[in-house]
Amino acid sequence: MPEFSQWQERDLYLLLLIRHFELSLLNLFSQGKLHGTTHTCLGQEYIPVALSPLLSVNDFLFSHHRGHGHYLARFHDPSGLLAEIMGRSGAPCNGVGGSQHIHREHYFSTGVQGENLPLAVGVALHFKQRASGGIAVVYLGDGTWGEGTTYEALNIAQLWQLPLLVVVENNGIAQSTLTSMQMAGTIASRAAAFHINYLNISSIDIECIRNEIAPALQRVRTTGLPLIIEFETVRLGPHSKGDDTRDRETLQRIQAKDWYYLYQQHFPDQLGKTESVVKKHLNDILEEVEQRPLAQWEIA
Length: 300
What we know:
This protein is α/β, with parallel strands linked by helices. The protein has 12 helices and 9 strands. The chain has a single domain (9-289), classed as 3-Layer(aba) Sandwich (Rossmann fold). The longest helix is centred in the C-terminal third of the chain and has 23 residues, at 268-290.
């Protein structure tokens, strides 16, 4: 069992908020109260929570289809996100964006694979020209490294020396295909090919992650050079709602690496107390949002 420190209460609260928000969505789908699709970040929650205090409100964050944790770590707004997904009033995009496509202050998410990295490069160029001190932060999955736009964007980012942070959530599987079956080589070797600074994170300890990332992230701000951080993480749930093709033994191995399971072994009292507070908070939000009227919008 890996050793890690007891986390700050606010970090644990946010982690559990994301975890139970995602579980609540799956439950709502099973009850027929949600439509369309959704992609949960179960198992990966610690990544945006660890990064959150290292980012400025002026930094522009680009997320992807599995981005609820990114949104919640940025805005601490479960009621707004739930309203967006349920199409209720008070939603940040008036219910039009749904689970995947959300635009808010210095935040943009999309379900289009590989779209966000070129956009992030453009924003990073803007930050450099304005000398604002801001950086563009873009989350990618390992599956996005099969998109040509990824390499075009990285080439320009390094060539023009742009303040860009690429956060790779490598959960080892792209939809239902293992990464080892669809990607030759490594992400580290791809970063090296462009001479882009690279950092690998295998820890799930939030404090250790921050201590390792903070100086590297500061160099992005001071030098204007891009950085790729690859997290070795796990995806507990299916690609979407019920399309997991992994066998039982594989899922058990993955679950044994889950931060929730490991933290429960180390600090069960703290986790239990915080979790009860989070569940009550979320239940209150679910009841309140479900009673809201449907969002009203018009096509111009």
